[in-house]
Amino acid sequence: MFSRRLPRASQRACSRLSQPPHHPLQTFAKLPSQTRIPRPQCLARRNISTAAAAKKLFKESPFLFPLAGFCIIAGMAGFLYLPYYYQNYIIAPYHNFPEPVAKKLRRAIFYSSGRNVDVREANKYFRQGILLANELGMDPFSDEILGVKIAIAAMFEREQHFNLAIEVLEILRRDCYRWVEEVGPKHWTDGKRTKILSKTVELNVKLGELYSNKYVQDTDAAEERLVEAVETILKEKSRREKDGVQTGEGEWMSDEEVGASLEALGHHYEEKDLHYLATPLFLQALTLCPPKSCHSVVLMNNLSICLAQQTPTPTPDALPNSVPHIPPHSRAMIIDQARQWASKALASAAVITPPDRTEECDQGCAVATHNLGEFAEMEGKIQEARKRYQEAASLAKAVGFKEGEINAKEGLKRLKGKD
């Protein structure tokens, strides 16, 4: 019998027979060393450069494009500056205060400066800050709290409320002296006593300045405060020389600070025409002045002026018997001494060079030359006086010293017709 699968087998056999014969594969004796790959073609369009795009935008909008760029740069600068401003001008100045106190002080500063000055509001927030500081346990004689109280006085002074400024500083001065007497002996070794005592000197000098103000004109009170400042300085200096400086006590006031206090009292006596009292104070301040300081030129000029304005020593017949006899000084001798100090001022200014040389040297030269002209005028030497006044006027004009130029021209006017 035939199988029923036979027809399929025959069909597969037929299909195989019907396929074309296979050809053998072609082989190459040697393959090419490098296959060449065709370079792909870039069908996309090349993007325009940033500079070219900017030029195109500028040509299309010559006004709006720079304005937009400026706004972007300004915005970025402001964005970067705001954290710096906040940290250095809002937070840093008050980092020693508790935050509740700092908030009050920021409001006080806002109302005490700039265009938003409101003395009443500023004073209210200053005082609220001080009360909060006391409640939170801050030391009322710390540098921070003393600085706040001095800032209140400075605000009153700026707004020309001089009596209120004096009142604040007087209260602070009394508190500091009371602290030195009652609590100071407990703070020999931490330097706080020295710091508070030097603060009393500064307060006295400032009060002397305020009392001498033309809107107050309390010369007696000014003299009292300035004398108290000098006495405090000399008393503490004497104590240190006698008992020695204790460990941790700290240095006393510098020579320049002591000289400034002496000079302030000297100017006060000079304004009251007490030149015989002002002269030794200026001389002592000069000895404390650094050797290459232009301020020494100013002090020498002050000495020459004080000497020239002094009256000669009374004759022996005019003095009471209890006063010892002192050889009288003639007017010519006094003027000669004044001339010597003015000449020393010029010589000192000539040897001071930058960076030590300041405008005090330039103005001091003009003042000294003017003083020499006045001394010559006092002695009747008109030609020499005119020459000195002309030199003083040219020097003052060269350095921009308007007051010196005006005074020199006034001296020349006085000499007209005196030849």
TrEMBL record:
The chain crosses the membrane at residues 63-86. It comes from the Eukaryota. GO terms for molecular function: misfolded protein binding. Keywords: Membrane, Transmembrane, Transmembrane helix. Coiled coil: none annotated. GO terms for biological process: protein quality control for misfolded or incompletely synthesized proteins. GO terms for cellular component: i-AAA complex. Residues 1-25 are annotated as: Disordered. This is TPR domain-containing protein. It comes from Mytilinidion resinicola.
